[in-house]
Specification:
Helix 1 packs antiparallel against helix 6 and helix 16 runs parallel beside helix 18. By secondary structure, this protein is α+β, with helices and mostly antiparallel strands. The radius of gyration is 23 Å and the shape is elongated. The chain contains 18 helices and eight strands. The strands form three sheets. Strands 1-2-7-4 form a four-stranded antiparallel beta sheet, with helices on both faces. Strand 5 and strand 6 form a beta hairpin.
């Protein structure tokens, strides 16, 4: 978030001296393009009632899981004018991060890690925030007013605002879909006190398509336009701090940070093109990293590998937890030594995941031997629960799918 420079022209709130608002929007759009934004449109400084109701219902049903920050002062999130009473218009910006090739191909390579497209390059927060600040300075110096900018870091509902501005529509997977860029837009918001006229919103063009709903590995969509974050792989691998529920682990495959399935399968991606920002392109070392190498990372190694990326925010322990779930799903006994070594890791969340992974790769007799050697020394309740669950029906049952992967 940033405020207007102190030496900016001081105009009355909402007034636009010496030039018309259409001219300001045109100049702003040109400057946005020059700064590397791929899309720009203006939304009213208020969310549609359906968006407010949707947020309220989502929180009331507890579908946000342990993302307590979503439930913190929901009124601010549901209404930009509560977050900042002086706001009169919201300029929504998009940066295309479309991948090269099929982003789901890697999910069919169980020995390597599938990292979500958005996280394979530099942290988008850093890339977009600098551009937003530059655009904000341009707007203030050109037309006055005050501004604040946000990139997925405050109580701002970027996707509904982008839909209201006409950058796209929220699809049945609840993400933004663009006719030009498909599912691949990073979003940023520029709040202004200027009375900029809003653009027309984009009608929903999903029609009868269910591709995004049907492909979800964990059946995280109870209905079209509804997400149960507690079953979403992106939530489980990024936001969730505890052990990943056992009934969902098998369904995650090798997805260790985020999930692109519902995004990648959208038919509107046929109009998308690869992103042009070099800093957002996949780093070579993150394109198909071997699971064994990732599981061997200590804290210092984790920080070095993921410096400057969005992945760094979850920390080494949760990251290795995710990797161990993928190792357990690999069906590769050659990875058993990796999991075996980590059952003595200092982090309880790693020890528990290592037990589950190892039990899926070695004979029951080895697990019985390890139980006699190690289980009695464990003091963490969560890891003790993992020991108790090994070999029980509850370990993999109630997954929401049968063994063929079909919805139950």
């Amino acid at each position: 978030m940033t405020a207007a420079p102190k030496n900016a022209p001081q105009n009355a709130p909402g007034t636009v001296p010496d030039r018309d608002v259409a001219g300001i929007k045109s100049a702003l759009a040109r400057q946005a393009a020059a700064l590397g934004f791929d899309a720009m449109a203006v939304a009213p400084a208020a969310l549609p009632q359906r968006s407010r109701d949707g947020l309220a219902g989502f929180l009331k049903a507890g579908l946000h899981g342990d993302m307590d920050w979503l439930a913190d002062r929901p009124g601010r999130r549901a209404d930009p004018r509560v977050l900042w009473p002086e706001v009169r218009a919201v300029v929504m910006l998009g940066v295309n991060y479309g991948p090269v090739g099929d982003p789901l191909a890697i999910t069919r390579e169980p020995g390597v890690a599938a990292i979500s497209v958005y996280a394979r390059g530099d942290d988008y927060h850093d890339v977009i925030k600098k551009r937003l600040k530059a655009l904000a300075r341009f707007l203030v110096s050109t037309a006055g007013g005050d501004v604040k900018v946000f990139v997925d870091t405050a109580a701002v509902m970027e996707k509904p605002l982008a839909a209201a501005a006409g950058l796209g529509w929220q699809g049945k997977h609840t993400n933004l879909v663009s006719r030009q860029f498909g599912s691949w837009l990073f979003l940023g918001a520029l709040f202004t006190t200027l009375e900029l006229p809003p653009d027309a919103d984009e009608p929903d063009r999903c029609g009868s398509c269910r591709a995004c709903l049907d492909i979800c590995p964990t059946a995280a969509f109870p209905a079209p336009y509804q997400l149960d974050a507690r079953r979403c792989i992106s939530y489980l691998t990024i936001e969730h701090r505890g052990p990943i529920p056992r009934n969902l682990r098998r369904l995650m495959g090798n997805r260790i940070y985020g999930c692109d399935d519902c995004l990648a399968v959208c038919p509107w991606n046929r109009f998308a093109r690869a992103g042009r920002e070099a800093r957002l392109q996949a780093r070579t070392e993150l394109s198909a990293p071997p699971l064994a190498e990732l599981a061997a990372l200590d804290d210092a190694g984790f920080r070095r590998l993921f410096a400057g990326t969005a992945i760094k925010r979850i920390g080494r322990d949760r990251f290795v937890r995710n990797v161990l779930v993928a190792i357990g799903n690999s069906a590769d006994p050659g990875l058993a030594p990796v999991a075996r070594r980590l059952i003595a890791d200092p982090a309880a969340i790693v020890r528990g995941a290592a037990l589950w992974a190892l039990a899926r790769l070695v004979p029951e007799a080895e697990i019985a031997t390890l139980r006699m050697r190690h289980a009695g020394d464990e003091r963490d309740p969560g890891v003790m629960e993992e020991w108790a669950a090994l070999g029980t029906a509850g370990d993999d049952a109630a997954s929401g799918r049968d063994d063929s992967g079909a919805h139950i």
